[in-house]
Here is the input.
Amino acid sequence: MPRILIVEDEPGIVLSLEEDLRRQGYETAVATDGDQGIALGTERQWDHILLDLMLPKVDGFDVCAALRRAGITTPIILLTARSQEAEKILGLDAGADDYMTKPFSLRELRARIRAQLRRGSGAGERVVRFGDCEVDLNRAELRRSGERVDLTAQEFRLLEVFLRNVGRVMNREQLLDAAWGPALAITDRAVDTHVFNLRKKIEPVPAEPRYLIGVRGLGYRFERGE
Ligand code: CA
Here is the structure.
């Protein structure tokens, strides 16, 4: 069942969206302000995010930008009450995939969600291979020599960030921001702990890392190997 996150503060719209989408066989969850949207959007895996623009605390543009910074690639449709061209462009610049101007027809929204889901399932390189590892970014799965390896959601997100930044040195703060999100208070040490755990799952010899390389005084760098 595809899972859709609705980030919207108007109860009437939330109600009709939830009712309609559930009837279509989607599983839904709701965040009613921007902070909650970022938290839920980064904590769990979604197939789709519907994001209102005018939200309490953090507006839709910033939520969208924060999710993209955090390495979340889930398709996002902006729900906007504004019709100005500039707002739409800002939204797309912030990393949204599509937008709908309120009031919109539920039928059209459903069609756009289906289109995004189709695009998502067939898009680009969604399986990354290095060494004996195979990472399926759509299913959030790691296989090693064909065997499924269990990763926590957080480990997967960190791995995803590394895969997106191959060859680039990232310091702990950047990694925290990208893999945990700016809203959460976590110490740098969490990065090291997760890197340590990831190495055990992807490295042939965890003590002599070939892929997840520590750069003294700076942070970490992911190398895909040859
Ligand atoms: Ca609103």
User: Anything to note?
Assistant: The chain has a mean pLDDT of 87. Residues 9-10, 52, 54-55 surround calcium ion (CB under 6 Å). The first strand starts at residue 3 and ends at 7. The chain has two domains: 3-121, 127-222.
